[in-house]
Amino acid sequence: MKIVIRAGGVGTRLWPWSRSSRPKQFLPFFEDRSCVQVVYDRFVNSDLVNHQDVYLSINRDTYKLAKAQLPELRDENLIVEPATRDTAAAIGLETIWVAANNPDETIASLGSDHYCGKPENLLRALDRADQFLDENPGYLMAIACKPTRVETNYGHVKMGEKLWDEGDIPVHFAEEFTEKPNWPTAERYMESGDYLWNANFFAWKAGTLLEQFEKFEPEMHETLMELADARDGENFRDVLEEKYSTIKKTAVDYAILEPASREDRLAVMPVDMEWSDIGSWATLTDAFEPDEDGNLFQGPVKAEDTTNCTAVIKNPDRRIVALLGLEGLAVVDTGDALLVCRKDEATKVKKLVHEMRDSDDLSDLV
User: Fold this and answer.
1) In degrees rounded to 5, what are phi and psi of residue 25?
2) Which residues are CB-neighbours of 124 under 8 A, at least 6 positions away?
């Protein structure tokens, strides 16, 4: 199995700490270690794969960051997108990069910006997925986690009939693969017990994935095949630079996984791994333990009569941030920017960042 750690996102919902030049997956959330470093260590220190089988997929803006944080990573294992084209293009590129001439290669394509409290269960699930795909190469696989609450900010996968039951982790047909539901729908999903959270962990045979591109996104497939033909040539970088920016900008969820699930080509494996998307200032307490009042503070913070608040202070000149009589707020201070918002509105930070990006006066802050 080849492991590809996807780290090309920007993480706008965690602005102002996360910026395009230093997105959230490269920030030191885990003491002095970033998500990328933690995930990389998880695999190179495991028995699942050899270190040369672990790849990192990034965008051009974070090349220096990646080299600084993972100096041991070989250049041939660093997949650099020449343009930002969303996850369908990124996953297509990684497939060509890793296995252009080997359609039978199993690739695990894994998001990097998450917390995993039981990594040993994820490693065991990937080992089972490798076995399943060797025996059933025509399927795409989603490794998903059991929900712990009603959640409208995660994609959901519905487990159908059991498909494979070798070992301790079963595999089911994925009957539905849907993006973020509204609250009543999410409640129904939770009550049914049939739905899992999409953790953005996938595995497949390279050839099978490319077949799905050919079926559901033929124009994307045509460009990917041009890249595959050039992969081992001296001018591959030039061809990549020319062709990649022409690929359709869309998420792999919409382009491939949802239509594959409608045709019974998507399998799902439920795994107890204590997963959490480090996706917004509201969800940090999934990954990091709050105090008895539900507060999570990093930096010089003093609070009185304050509950369910998150304050992250990354401003070396700030001596104290005082919170008094507050509930359910996020406060983030980075010196050049200050964010104060209700935690239940934290996902809207992305919209705010997009508006600042279009502003001549503020675009340098995102």
Assistant:
1) -70, -15
2) 168, 169
Longest dimension (CA), the chain: 65
CA–CA distance from 262 to each of 175, 176, 338 (Å)?
Answer: 7, 7, 45
The full DSSP string for 131-188 is HHHHH-TT-EEEEEE--SS--SSS-EEEEEEEEE--TTS-EEEEEEEE----HHHHHH
pLDDT band, very low/low/confident/very high, at 227 (cuts 50, 70, 90) = very high
The one-letter code for the residue type at 174 is A
Question: What does the block give as tokens for 287?
Answer: 């990954």
Structural domain spans, the chain: 2-277, 284-365
CATH class of the domain defined by 2-277: alpha beta
Each residue's pLDDT tens digit, 112-141? 999 999 999 999 999 999 999 999 999 999
pTM of the complete model: 0.94
Distance (Å, rounded) from C-alpha 66 to C-alpha 72? 10
**What's the gap between Cα 352 and its chain centre?**
21
